[in-house]
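Dear support,

We are seeing what looks like truncated structure output for some complexes. This example has three components. We would appreciate it if you could run it in full and send us the complete token output so we can diff it against ours.
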Amino acid sequence: MSVVPEARRVSTAIVPGLVRRRRRWPFSPWHLVLIPATIVLLFPFVWLVVTSVETSSEALRFPPDLTPHVIRFQNYPDALNAAPFGRFFFNSAIVALTTVVCNLVLCSAAGYAFARFRFLGRTALFIVMMATLMVPFQVTMIPQFLITKWVGVNLLAGAGIGHIGALILPNAATAFGVFFLRQFFRTMPIEYEDAARVDGANRLKVLWKVVLPLATPALATLAALTFLDSWNNFLWPLIAINSTAASTLPLGLATFQGAHSTEWPLLMAGNVMSLAPMMIVFLIAQRYFVRSVAATGLSGI
Amino acid sequence: MGTNRLRTAGICALAMTVVTGLAACGSGSVATGNSKSIQIWEGYTGVEAKVFARMITQYEKSHPGVKVNTLYVNSDNTLQKVQTAVAGGAPPDIAYLYGSWAPNVAKISSVVTLTSLVKQPGVDWNDFWVGERDVATVNGRVIGMPALVDNLAVVYNKTLFAKAHLPLPSANWTWSQFEADAKKLTISSIKQFGTAYVTPGSEDTVWHWEALLWEAGGQLLNPDNTKAAFDSPAGLTALDALRTMSVTDKSMYLDPTDSAYANLFNSGKVGMLVTGPWDLSAFPNVKYGVQVMPSFPGTTGGHQTISGPDNWVVFNNGASRVKTAENFLLWLTAPAQDKYFTLKTGNLPTRQSTANSPGYQTQMNAALPDVSTFIANLSNVKQARPQIATYPQVSQVIGNMIVAVLLGKQQPKAALDAAAAKVNQILAGSG
Amino acid sequence: MSLSASLALSRRRLGERPGSRRLRRAESLTGWAFVTPATVVIGLFGAAPIIWSLILSFQQNNLLSSNTPFVGLRNYRQMAHDPVVGSAIWHTLIYTVLFVPGTMVVGLFLAVAMNRKLRFMWVYRTAAYATMAISTISEALVFIWLFDPSYGIVNYIFSLLHLPQQQFLNSPSQALYVIVVMTIWGWSGFAVVIYLAALQGVPKDLTEAAAIDGASPVKSFWRITMPLLSPASLFLAVWLTINALQLFDEVYLSTQGGPLGATTVMVYYLYQQAFENFNFGYASAIAYVLFIVILVVTAIQFRIGRRFTYYRS
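Here is the complete output from our reference environment:
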């Protein structure tokens, strides 16, 4: 694997006396790996952004033209005016943020229990949770619809079909989140928890005061992934939502995509605008990765 | 510090949950209770969506007390959403559904029979094209009102024809002329193709070929839909024509994803396309003309085409809401509204009287050049796809057969025989 | 061998000490208190629907008429005579075997490259993340273009390198590999994020000490970094496999299962059966066979993981 010789160069930089060797490069050789990789990773993104400022006649080309003759920023306001996107954006934001918070709370409690406690039925329960990830949504969709409807009628009107609560509650805790955090908690040193327990803290306090602060990278990662999942979710809102007022962004963006004709520039402008919050969430989450690591004293940064 | 942040997060969570609860209460589902309030699931985008919204406003103004709520659902997904809603006991009042689904849609118990409605005086059911009426009728029962009609014709690039010094296609042209033109329009050095064909193996692959099959004098199935009939000399003629272009001449661009062919034509890379009127607005960059599909000389078929009409289907949410929905549909599909909609959107007229009204075709051509050929071509729709519930399975078999031949993986005769055997199995109920 | 056995065994590594019975009961109660909220949600909206669809798999159900008779095992027996099911399983497995390690290797490589302080690092990391955020339809359209036989960039590069031109999505023998490349691209950002988070847990003093002791970076990567990343690797392997075996979106938006069924994977086939052919009962039965496949594969992964995963406790 080519990681290795490159790794040598960088790690030698730490050893005093070898630092000078690195100076022969005006920049880190890692850039030579990362720049081509980034070009590949960003290519579809570039296409997306370019298409979003093309005129519709230029967007209707194959092969696509990445150097448009006219730059049409008007696509952005046009896209926004084509449908009540303010409402869609608001709905998506409420759904995604609430889903993230619920997942962080519920999945960290459950993940911690699976990682650290011995309780009756733990293994069986974990298997059942994992099993819910293994049946494709295409077949569980209809039972889930009926259950959501039942919940809306009998338990919580705001979480019934047609309400945005129906987009939150079924995803308020996910087996993915539980599994993810369970794995992470198991990699953490148990000594801090033991120390806190000797000091008389109860389990909840240990989780809140000791474990979660140490787990910020994992929580930030889960938050970013959950946000993304919720923000991009299409199929479940498609069947669970019955009004424009309760629609989310992906449903709104779909209105640019007819069965026979698609308004590509508007669709892509909408897509770019829809990407922005996800990138912001990631940039925020990314800061937490580093900071919490510094706090744990696990690294020498 | 981390703890503080988490506490803040906790408070945010609480606040958010409250907000959600409120928002959820505010944005409820619509169209419940009030019998004068109905919901329509439609798939209109762009201009169509604007015109449709205007018509609804107009209707609500002229019918005080009636509220028509529309919800956009991409037509590809509508049936899936309808199925789920039906299972949950809450279908919409009206949904826009593809005609190819009709035999299966008819099985839904809450679908309202419109047979007596369309026979009412003033509806003039026979004013709709025969292709539309056929697709809205399942075993003699009318389950929908025509929402859209289309057909296939040849759209060609006038500039490329001129460059190749070819005469433009005439109304009595043949498939061998089409093949020869395609060959001459193919210039591999500049990656220019004579024609293109969609090859995902889906119904889109199949219905293009069905038009050829009919023109060659063939039939897909026997008259009582119990056996395959396409493994005939006509089937061979139709399949050979495609094979000549894709395998022998390499004059046909194969589009396995159904996503590139139209843009290729608009980029001047393809000389001729067999396609429908919906694509015309996607060709702003080329000077195009439209001609009817070529024929196979010496066969009984002549110039034919195929239509894929779509339906408005009514669902039963109580007698009074059904009444409201039916009244709205009668208004929506009446001649005046039909004419208004086609003129504003460029869609083909669903009624023959609209097509024949004075000055109409000139107005249409001004908006979309040569669209009148498609309108005239509606009278070349002489038959419809078999209206059977197993059509989707049959279509998948035929789709794979066509793709196998176009990719040069199978000889036409062998492909036809193998596909016919599979189709017979499906029709016999053991597929 | 079952998932439960492997999990029960792995419990030993958790640093749990046997206590008195009363303490254990208290711990049991606390444990349940912690998992109950998540269990209620996942049980109601995750577990109940899968039991419900198990019932559907014993029905003849087209999701249209309300007449849904029970047909026993007929849907399952029908699968034995359906050649498409066999090839769909085969395509799914080939896809998974290529996609999962491919994504993990690409993700690990990029994460290691990005796990350092460099100028513009936020650009690189954001680029990786963007691959997750971009919609599948955009992704599919770009890859359809890149791999177009006549107009695609990949064939253009091939011609510069004097390699023969390929048919890619038009070729039954190549289309699945194009999907593999497309999805590795789409998931590499996910693997990068997971590995980056895990790499933060690798103490620098350990690798530095190893370097000063004269261990080559190769050695310290394999001996120190990789074992510390093993929980993340297990997580990724399991999660990517679960998703790979349920591949659908990319196929739906590009090849629609073709050409000639070459990219018909299990979920695409059951979708076709459920919503194109109106055999929802049959689709549910296929889903249950897929479920068994995923369960077995995941159990094997956990078992292998137990041997190779290093938990620090």
